[in-house]
């Protein structure tokens, strides 16, 4: 079933076309320059590699319920996804892309868990916006993310540009650090070991393909 879906890269082309129509050219240039600079500056992104033991954690989901990683691992493997926020169109595209492959994830004894530093309210927003039927967790202060992927302070220029476009970046978070994670994906086996660790780098326009995750699960 999932083989009939577009790849992330194919859907990215459509998104880019839409953004070109929706955003002023100078604003899109700011965001693209930011992505390119992050690709160059963010090195040694992954904090855990294949074979490492994933540390346990407990975070609130969109309904403000506590979800513990090791409890989930008693049920199945976990595909752990770190993303930036609801305001990021590439994050929305990535999570929507993964949602289309849920049947294949489940078939290979794995459940999807998405983590960002957003508040539970914002987690609920992205869950409802993209009709996500998996856990979306709130990692206030990126306390969990720091153990898995690089965390950095978002630059002023893209945030100022968002503000000029009517988007309130700071309202999505419970603190004012403006720190966000570099997007990354991990598969954690039921013995708590990492079996897959991947990031496409600081350029947040690119994301790990669902097919790469599925091939690793196989």
TrEMBL record:
The keyword Oxidoreductase applies. One of its GO terms (cellular component) is cytoplasm. It comes from the Bacteria. Its EC number is 1.11.1.24. Keywords: Antioxidant, Disulfide bond, Oxidoreductase, Peroxidase, Redox-active center. Belongs to the peroxiredoxin family. BCP/PrxQ subfamily. Transmembrane segments: none annotated. This is thioredoxin-dependent peroxiredoxin. Gene3D superfamilies: Glutaredoxin. The keyword Disulfide bond applies. It is an enzyme of class 1 (oxidoreductase). Signal peptide: none annotated. It catalyses: a hydroperoxide + [thioredoxin]-dithiol = an alcohol + [thioredoxin]-disulfide + H2O. Pfam families: AhpC-TSA. Residues 48-218 form the Thioredoxin domain. GO terms for biological process: cell redox homeostasis; cellular response to oxidative stress. Thiol-specific peroxidase that catalyzes the reduction of hydrogen peroxide and organic hydroperoxides to water and alcohols, respectively. Plays a role in cell protection against oxidative stress by detoxifying peroxides and as sensor of hydrogen peroxide-mediated signaling events. InterPro entries: AhpC/TSA, Peroxiredoxin_BCP/PrxQ, Thioredoxin-like_sf, Thioredoxin_domain. One of its GO terms (molecular function) is thioredoxin peroxidase activity.
